[in-house]
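Hi R.,

Here are the chain sequences for the assembly we discussed:
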Amino acid sequence: MPSAARPKTFAGGAGLVWRWQRILCWIFIVNLVLAHFAVRGLVDRVTPALAHSLASQRLVSGFDLNAIMELSVQPDSPLEAPGPVVFHYSVIFAIFMIFSTGGILATYVFDTKPTTTAFFEACGHHFWRFIRLLVYMALSFIPIGILVAICSPIYNSIDAKSNSPYSAAYFSGAASLIVLLLLIVLRLWFDMAQIIAVADDETRMHRALRRAASLLRHNFGSLLWLYLRISLLAWIFCGLGLYLWVYHLSPFSTTIAFLLTQLVLIFWIATRLWQRASEALWYRQYQAAGVPEPTYSPSPTPAPVPYSTAMN
Amino acid sequence: MFRGWSTVLFAGALLLFARGMVSESAPKPPNAQALTPAPSATLNAPLSTRVVAYTIDAKLNTNSHSIDATETLVYKNLTGQPQQSFPFHLYLNAFQPQSTLMTEVRMGGVRGVGSDSSWNEKNRSSITVAKLEVDGAGDLTDKMQFIQPDDHNTNDHTVFQVTLPKPVAPGASVEFHMTFHDELPEVLYRTGYKRDFYMIGQWFPKVGVWWKNAWNCHQFHADSEFFADFGTFDVNLTVPQDETLGAAGDLLSSVNNPDGTKTAKFHSEDVHDFSWTASPDYTVVEDSWTGSAGPVKIHVLMSPGNMKSAPRYVQALKGTLAWYDRNIGPYPYDRVTVIDPPHGAENAGGMEYPTLITAGTTWYMPKGVLAPEDVVNHEFGHQYWYGMVATNEFEEAWLDEGINSYVEAKSMAAIYGENTSIINFPFATASEAQLLRIEYISLPDTDPITRFSWKFISDNAYGGVTYGKTGTVLLTLEKVIGEKTMLAALHEYFLRYRFKHPTGEDFLRTIEDVSHQDLKWYFDQAVYGTNILDYDIWDAHSDRLNWWEKEASRKKTNDEIYRTYVTVHRKGDFVFPVDLLVKFEDGSTATEHWDGRDRWVRYTYDRKTKVASAQIDPGNQVLLDRNFFNNSYVVDGDNRPVHKLENMWVFASEWISQFLAWVS
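And here is the predicted structure of the full complex:
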């Protein structure tokens, strides 16, 4: 890839997210609305117990863990675990994201204002391809799962044999980092495959994956650094937000707490979109530079139908 | 024994992100000897009635994790009648698959061993008495007979009995000589080895107690602890020279042997047990404290990785010593040893022995989670409630664990703050007293406090009732008779019964004596019963007195009279007098005192103002009340607590969604 193009991808990706910030807004709103529905039942149950009780002030003036535990151990506890409901709504959100990724990537790849119809046409056009990619991704998790399964008894063995608790902790830390890195590389690989599918209207997902793998292998450092830089910013901002929430926010300020947490979430979503936009930009520049793909020459592909209509 | 780990860990897990890794920096002293010899450790005037005198010579074999020992027991017959049969505990035989203890564990899971856990041969242990001789009677090894006084499980070998050819006369003594061999388990139930760490408790044949005109020598149960007579212990321990020793006695001497071992002589008196520990990896921290009974040496044996917690242990111990000295009575021993078990040996932690306790921490323990302080406070408390006031832990566990839990809540609050005595972060807090209450309200009515410890419906019920409910019963009683009176009663109970074996009735009678109150109504329900205490505000509302006049047709005046109704309901069967505070919109208040005998009571007020709130037990004094949230009703609700929880749940839900989207 031409070195001159590299710096532009980082800032250019941010520019794309800013330019098409409607995408960010919609994702945030859908996420918030689904989360709201996910906890609605719990809120409805807890409101009669808390809203008219002076005992609930223990949660207002600070965060009294005893109060939460007291609620949770009551025979008819209103704090019944919302886990399954939350999970179901999270699955709905994940499906929504798979669906909308086609439209989002098309927007970033072609950097042209789509009509609503064109956006959703792109979403629908790529939806089943991305579902197929999801199946491949699930298969890719198997070796990582095996790695975790191997690490677990090693950790137990080190923990059992070593007099120092640090040995097992260091091993656990190192293993976690490696697994995280593998997951990031896996995500990056599938991100690139999705971009190839959209940019080149690649219909065969195994082919998209092979081309993405080839790209990743030959540009591993630059792509990983592109991804990690944005991730680091996301983690730092989240850490800062949590720090402010935990240590500096008045326990009475529920509104500001809500705004702060949602700000953190918006930034998190924005950085994820930033990664997508930067990757799309990187691929666009890669194609523009005319560098032949190392192993695969893309077959002649028609221009993406929905967007060509919209753009012309 | 400390049982609050799960709750503390639950709270700690919620808050884990707040702290990072800590590192050990304190160097290990070159001389790996925990205790410096105490030349002043001389035989003092007895504090207790010394029934037993044990002399034990034990050699630790670190290759086979076993102990070879000889024991001489001089038993003084103070039972007032001739004694011919003597029962002995062999606690280490409990860790065998068909023992009573393991059978009970399989039924419910106890102390880190789940009911579905598979059997691990490393956890097998045994104690074998190879030879038993009695002075004047010769070799009685073949007269030993395993007995099962509690459940007739013939596979349980935790108690044996020997019958002498002729009885021991009242006031006379009998001398037993035993040779025994211990096979130690990998740490399980307070005792055993982990790598090169050894915690040796309940490891020698221990004679039962003549109590209530019979021998009291129960089998080892999953949910029970111990009971023994006071006396003296002279114990010689032979271990490899690189081992650092800690023991429940004064170190009289330590001599290196030509074979690479060393023999340390320990002496302890006016105690009813002897335990010890050895590890080449200990870092020894020494300190001292002086109380009304003189100086006390503090020995803390820290395991690798945990040195950050050493100052926390010492500070907690000194604070607790001072609190007890001020409020309960003097600590008469000249030493206290704290053992910090290494990682993986957590089941050896949180246990009490006379003058020696085991604590517990982790290398990443955040300062805001006061688990190390709490466990030291709790286990030291047992020096009083078990160590000196030596109640029967098999039959009346509430007298040691329950009273100790109450005092733990008081002393931890005094040292670390009323609302921050167990969790203390800027963003979240929790108190020890409330934690006890939560233990209680999770299982409030399955068993009375006074049930034998192994007869509870489950391990959770044993913990919730013995620790949580008893602590809460005493915290509530404190509100009835006053905090000063309650502490005075404990002080009196300690003075009356130290170095004795009192019963529950002795304890309750002492409270009535000191408070000059007949508290039978309370004890019958709270101690002997399983009644639930729960009051709620059934209704609180105001209505215009001239309600039939339409709002629009009336002139707005300040003379409008409202009739306010407040109905208090007793939901549970526990009858307890309660106070009611009614607040009105104009700031005026009304207070009521209800004896609580009927199922409900309604109060009516005619005022020129409407009711704002009604609250039972305004000071949250009645901690036995199962649900504080229904104790009050505020007419104009406040949704902030709901919004606060909602914020957190929504945020968590959003993150789960983000994670799923990332991996899909």
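Residues 404-526 of chain B form a domain with the Neutral Protease; domain 2 fold (CATH 1.10.390.10). Residues 9-42 of chain B have pLDDT under 50 and may be disordered.

Let me know if anything looks off.

Best,
T.
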